[in-house]
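Hey, quick one: can you model this chain's 3D structure?
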Amino acid sequence: MKTSCMCLALFTLLLAHEARAADHQVTARSSNTFSPASLTIDVGDTVTFVNGGGIHNVVSDPGAVTQFRCANGCDSDGGNGDPSGASWSATVAFDTAGTVGYSCELHGAPGSGMFGTITVVGAPPPSFSLSTDDQYLWMVPPASNEDQQGFLRLMNNENVAADVSVWGLDAAGERSAGTISLTLAANESRQFNSQDIEAGNVDKGLSGSFGDGSGDWSV
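Sure thing. Here's the predicted structure for all 219 residues.
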């Protein structure tokens, strides 16, 4: 006679407020300068360049980790990056860490005249800790186990939404082929079973899956 056991792995995530992408503004001025001429931002932030007077554009230096040529929109997005005296604005996303120099084609060149520098730094991942008040069972039985049913519950105790990604190690010490991801609303709790974890379940808000593994999962 088969016995049945429900195994629950409970994670209480005390998530710090996640850094949200910020937008910064740089103004091309009639004095043939950019303001601010030097800017430090995080990976994932955007910069909106605006024309505050004069005929200008903004062009990234050759070899910069982020490339753009913008004025009335950006060339790469179907806009027109030619110098213009209109009250234009153009927004550029900076998704790679590094230093990005830029200049106005009419009044500057890389590192001289009307130029600027944007330093893009890697944003640290959101920090989290596990509550010591809860009991943890790290081993989640696989979906193929007919005698045990495993569950994973994720809880967000913060007052802001949080993006969560989870991966696992199987009994052989191999990392899961995939990762499950989801967004937890403020103070939300969600529960998933072994089948959800291994095969995915979009109806429960999961993106991705672990795939098959050998034996129990450590998550």
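One thing worth noting: Confidence is low (pLDDT under 50) at residues 1-19, 125-137.
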